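CBM1 domain-containing protein, Remersonia thermophila. C-alpha cells?
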Amino acid sequence: MKVQQHNLLAAALALAGMPGAEAVLRFSCSELVTERLDPLVFPGVAQSPHLHQIVGGNMFNITMDPTQHNIGEEATCTTCTFSEDFSNYWTATLFFRARNGSYIRVPQRGNIDFESARGGGMTVYYAPGYQNQKVTAFRPGFRMIVGNPFYRTQAEASKFRQLTFTCLDTLYTRTGETTSMPTQPCREGIMANIRFPTCWDGVNLDSPDHMSHVAYPSSGTFESGGPCPASHPVRIPQLFYEVIWDTRQFNDRSLWPEDGSQPFVWSYGDFTGYGTHGDYVFGWKGDSLQRAMDANCDVYCPQLRTQSIAQGNQCRQQQKVRENIDGWLSKLPGDIEVTGPQPPIGGGGGNGGGNPTPTQPSQPAPTNGGGNSGCSVAKWGQCGGRGYTGCTRCAAGSTCRAQNEWYSQCL
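C-alpha cells:
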C-alpha cells in the first residue's frame, strides 16, 4: 500500500509541476449527472447552452443561491470519496465528429486507482501551501470559474495559466502537456487538466464574472511560493481537476477528417481546446477542508471521513433537462454551432450511426438596436440571448448569429 501511495503521489506532483511538495489531497468523484445546466453562469435558467459533466454533492440544481442554502450542511450524499465534500465540480463534455458531420459523445474513464468510478468521473486535487506558507480554505458560498468557452486562440487562452491537455501514452503519462487539443491519436485517451487561481481578495465569495475575486500570484507560481497581489492577498488551496476522455475507440485515422486534423469537439462548439473551462461551487462540511489543509493531508487523510468508490457511485441525479445526449447525433446538444477553426465535413469513413444531417449554420440573430452604439463584440464573443444585456454589435468581419435561445455569438 505504501508503494501504491508513493506512485499516486508522484503522479499527482508531476502533473501539478510541484517539486518538493509535501502533500496533495487527491481523490475520486464519480459522475453525478451529465446535462445542460449551469447554475453559476445561468442561475435559475432551466437549461444552459452547452452540455456539462457534473460530479460531487446532490445539492446541484438549477439555482444554487448561497443566501438560501448551505450546501455542505444540506446535501445528503456525494459522489466523492471524501464523504464530507459536497462541493460540485463540472466541465464541458467531449464529442467525436465523423466525416459526415454527425456527433457521438466520448466516454470518460477512471483515473489510476479510481477505475471503478461511475461514468469515469474526475480526479480532484487540493494542494496546501508551499514554502511553509499556510492556505485559507474556501468558505460556504464560495464559487469560481476558470477559462472561457468563447476563446479560440492561444493568445486569448494565455490569460489563464495551466489549462492543458495530456495525450496519454499510458495512464501514468504526465508530460507533454499542450494548451490546444492533441493532434495525433492518444493510446490511452486524452486527459484534460484544469487548475484554478490561488489568491483570493478575502472579501467576495463570488464576483459578476465568477473570476475577478480570485487571481494568480503576482510573480512566480503557487508552487514556488510566489506572493499574492495586494488586491488578492489571501492564499487559497490550488484546486485542479483531471478528466480522462476515453478516445481509444476513435484512434483509427481512417475515421478522422481527410485533412488529417483531430476530430474531437467540445460541447460548446470548439475544436481547438482553447475554450476549455471548469466550474466550482464549494460545499465541504464544516471546517473539514481547513483541517485537511492544516494537516498537509496526503492521498489518504485521517482527519477526513471517507467512503468507497462503490458508495459514491450510489449518489446520482436524474437529468432535469431531458434530451438525448448519447448515440449518433446530427447536432451537438442545445443545437450548439461549431465555431472557430475546424476540419471540413465530407469524404469517406464510417460513422457507425447512419447518415444524420450535418449541423447547418444558424440564422443571424436579431439585434436589439439599443445601448450598443459605442461598443462592439470581438469575433467568437457573446452578442445576444435571453436575458443578455451586453453589447450586441459585432466587430467588423463577423455577424451575430443565434446558437439557441440562450445566447448568440459573433461568427
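Residues 402 and 408 are 4 Å apart (CA to CA).
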